[in-house]
Amino acid sequence: MNMHGFITPAHPTEERALTISERVRNLLYARRWFFLIVVLPTVLVGLYLYLYAANQYESEAHFLVHSAEKTQVPSAGASALSMLTGVGSGQNEAMSVADYLTSHDAVAKLRKEDALVERFQRPGVDVLSRLFGTNPTPERLLRYYQRQVKVKFETESGITTIKVHSFTPEDSYHIAQKLLQIGEERVNELNARSYHDQIANARRVLDEAEAALTANNAAMTPSATAAAISIRKPRALRSSASSPACPPNLPPHARSCRRWRA
Hints:
Strand content: 5-15%
Structural class: mainly alpha
Order of helices and strands: HHEHHHHHEEHEE
Strand order of the largest sheet: 1-3-2
Number of strands: 5
C-alpha cells in the first residue's frame, strides 16, 4: 500500500491554570447539597445563637421523698403496683410529684401565683425564644413551659431534679423555689389522702369483724339452747315395793327391811 505523505499527531492544547475563585466555585457546585443541608444551617444557627439569641439562665433544684411510715401496710392497688414496678411507696409518691410538676395544674398555679407568663415575656427577649401572646392559651403555655422546665426522677437514687431556664437569674430561681413549694404541698396532700384511706380501711375491717362476730353469735345461740334442753336431769330415788329377806344381823325392833334403788 502506497502512502503519500506522513501522518502527524495533532498538538494537544495546553490546559489553562484555574484561578482560586474558579476552584471554589467548582467545589461549591460539586458539593452543593452538602453545603445546603449541613453547612448553611449550622452557620445560620451559630449566627443566631451568638449574635441574636437572648441569654438564658438555669436554676437547678433537687428533692427526695421519704415514706412517712416504713412499716405501713399498703393498699391492694399500691401493693400490686409495687410488685409490678419494683418500687416502694416513697418512690411512687416521688414519681407522682414529678409528673404533677409538669402538668396543667402546676402551670395554672404558677400562672396565678407567680406571674409565669410575665417571666417568659421579659423585654429584650428575641422573637424565637420568647412566649408569644399576651394571654396565651393553657395548651400553648404548657408546651412552652415543658420546653423551659425539665423535671427528671432517678429511679436508682430516688432523687428528683428540677431544671428551670428563663431570661434572668432571679426568674429561674423563683420558679424553682415555687416548684419546690408546690411539690411539698403535693406530698402533704398525698400523705393526708393515704392517712384517710388507711383510717377508712381500718374502720371497714373493724365493721366486717363486728358483723362476722354478731353473725357467729346469732348462729351459736339456737344450738346452745337445744343443747341445754337435751341435758337429762337426775331422777329422784324411789323405794322398791318388794321386801326381800332381812340380813341376820338386823336389830329385833326392825319390822321390815327394804332395798333402795335409783
